[in-house]
Every structure is written in structure tokens, then in C-alpha cells.
Specification:
mainly alpha; 7% strand
Amino acid sequence: MGIYLNPGNIDFQRSLNSEIYVDKTELIKHTNKVINTEQQNVCVSRPRRFGKSMAANMLVAYYSRGCESKEMFGNYKIAADPSFEKHLNRYNVIHINMVNFMKRKKPVSDSIDYLSQRLLHELKKEFGDVDCFDWTDLISVLEEIFDAKKIPFIFIIDEWDCVFRIF
């Protein structure tokens, strides 16, 4: 659908096409278990080069309404889990790679403003039929879209620690 909103599964497909792929789909099983609970905020913290971006792309491919991923996951451990189809491609996913924003604008506040504008642009393109009070207020827009559509948003933030590396 969009660059940040429901971006699809092409990045995870690239991982599956690679010579070496290690099945980490049991992370999906854990994430499914904590959706809509007090433990729903999950942080995957690993050393550099240990597959965090691949895991983020996997979660995007699994949860995003912007694609059809059933066949993609069919040969992996998650396909045998009872929660597999319940959550597959059912959510509005916002996937943000923080490096893309932090390298673009300085100071950090400008990067955050730019990110907000980009997200608002994609949300308005996709959900322009929703009557939002203020299309410039990201939090309000997300709340009103959820209230109108009753489809939760899942945020997947990759390279969240780049603020410490770049600045």
C-alpha cells in the first residue's frame, strides 16, 4: 500500500530468497500471544548483525493488511500454530526505519516533524474517507481512524537506537 503504512512483504521475501535463512517465525507466536494485553509492547534487542531488521520485516509481512502472506509463511513453524490465521494480514502496520529519518534532517525535532508529516500523508491517502477533526495531529488522526475502522495499528520501529549512534 504505502512506504510506511502497510508496506507489504517484499523485504521479508528478500530474506526468504537468500542463501541462508533461519526460521525465526516463533517470534510471531510470542507476539500473537501478547497482542491486546498489558504486555503488547515488545522490544527485540540483539547485538548488531543478529537479524533484528529481518525480524522486523517478517513481522511487517505477517501482520500488514497491505499484502497476502499465507503462502510465504506456509513452510515455517508459525504455520502450525493455532494463532497463525487469526492474526495473518489483519492489522494496519506502520513500519519505520529510524535511520531513514535521522540522517535526513537535523536537529532531531525536524526529523520527528518530517516523520509525522510523511505518516499523515499516507494515512490521509488510505483513510481519506474518515472524518478527522485535525489532519495535522498524528495522534488524533490515528485515534479517529481506529475509532472509525476498528482495525488496530501495529508499529514496528527498526533501528530505534540510531539516535545514540548518529548523534
